[in-house]
């Protein structure tokens, strides 16, 4: 399944909120440097969907706040 994520790095608390069927707002504590926020978002999504982190891939939006993830 492909989902769209609006990333909020450097947040005070981590949380995932659903905006639509395949759209989520994901707030993580990690800063947007050296891919740390992307890795934290992938970990949060894996935990949220109950899958292994290796099954969550960032497809597009590596340097953008709007990202597309593939969860298999």
Query: What's the domain count?
Result: 1
CATH architecture assignment name: 2-Layer Sandwich
Structural class: alpha+beta
The main pleated sheet reads as: 5 strands, mixed
Count of individual helical segments: 1
Beta-strand percent range = 35-45%
Please identify which CATH superfamily we are dealing with: YggU-like
- Write the H/E string, N to C: EEEHEE
For the largest sheet, list the strands in their spatial order.
2-3-1-5-4
CATH topology: Conserved Hypothetical Protein Mth637, Chain: A
Mean pLDDT: 96
**Structural Rg:** 11 Å
The backbone outline, from C-alpha atoms, is globular
Q: What's the end-to-end separation, in Å?
A: 6 Å
Uncertain spans, ≥5 residues at pLDDT below 50? none
Q: What is the helical fraction, as a range of percent?
A: 10-25%
Could you give the count of β-strands? Answer: 5
Give the CATH level 1 class: Alpha Beta
Question: How would you portray this structure in words?
Answer:
It is a single chain. The chain is α+β, with helices and mostly antiparallel strands and 72 residues long. It has a five-stranded mixed beta sheet with strand order 2-3-1-5-4, with helices on one face. It has one helix and five strands; from the N terminus they run βββαββ. The protein has one helix at residues 36-49, and strands spanning 2-8, 15-18, 23-27, 56-60, 66-71. The chain starts with a strand and ends with a strand.
What is the secondary structure topology, with strand pairs?
Elements lengths: L1 E7 L6 E4 L4 E5 L8 H14 L6 E5 L5 E6 L1
Parallel strand pairs: 1-3
Antiparallel strand pairs: 1-5, 2-3, 4-5
């Amino acid at each position: 399944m492909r989902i769209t994520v609006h990333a909020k790095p450097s947040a005070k608390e981590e949380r995932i909120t659903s905006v639509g069927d395949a759209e989520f707002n994901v707030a993580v504590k990690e800063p947007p440097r050296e891919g740390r926020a992307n890795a934290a978002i992938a970990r949060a999504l894996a935990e949220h969907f109950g899958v292994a982190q290796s099954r969550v891939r960032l497809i597009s939006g590596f340097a953008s706040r709007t990202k597309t993830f593939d969860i298999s």
